[in-house]
Amino acid sequence: MKSTLRIAVLAALALVIAVPAAYAQTPEASTLPVNEPLDVGGTILQPGVYTIRVLPSLADRHKVQITSQDLQTVYATVLTVPHPILQNEEPANSVFVYYPAGEGMPAALRTWFAPDPDASGGGHDIVYSQSRAQQLARLGNSRVVAYPTETIVADLDTTPLSVVTPESTVEVYTVPPPAPVAIAETTPAPMISSETTRTETTQIAEATTPEMPSTASKVPFIALFGLLSLGGAVAFRLARR
Q1: Which long-range contacts (CB under 8 A, 24 or more apart) does 112-116 make?
Q2: Helix, strand, coil share of the chain (percent; to 5)
Q3: pLDDT by residue (tens digit) across 45-102?
Q4: Residue 39 class from Cβ within 10 Å (0-12 exposed, 13-18 middle, 19+ buried)?
């Protein structure tokens, strides 16, 4: 019982140590400087310097977390969708794209390109509530991915997403396809006729056919005859006694 308890305690301690280490090693993280109030997924950040990073997840959707520089204070956890890098788009390391500010409203973070965009196949588009997305779509003259306004945080991983257009229409959101992968061209192997293959196979078989051993020596038979003769002589002498 004590042994089982000791193993459980050690496993729990290992998990406690491993989880912060996994977060610290997340490749997608960078510094987010904020000079004036900024909306990030519905949370207004005040001027300061923050850390933005992707939370590791096995789900199709990612979440971005905004923390203090020492990672000790969490200010916001927001939903994002993939932003594929287009052929003519070459973002520099750690780039932020913003929606313009409206009257009485702060600017909003639109896309974040992490220092390692290959880890997610591109950047991260911030998802907003539908009511806020309608404002941003009009101000930025762009399409904004949104979730229903009444959605609670616990349902962000499963709630259906939509796209709000600058004309205030709502469309169904579909996950963008991954960037195409370049496939190296290869020279096809020359065609070989069946007759050629058959001929080569026959030649190989003939070349590798093992040679039969030569006729066996007569020495073993002579030795066997000698043993039989010796045995007969012994038997004869015993019989005379």
Answers
A1: 112/30, 112/32, 112/52, 112/64, 112/80, 113/83, 114/27, 114/28, 114/29, 114/30, 114/54, 115/27, 115/28, 115/29, 115/30, 116/27, 116/28
A2: 30, 25, 40
A3: 999 999 999 887 666 678 899 999 999 999 999 999 988 776 666 655 558 999 999 8
A4: buried
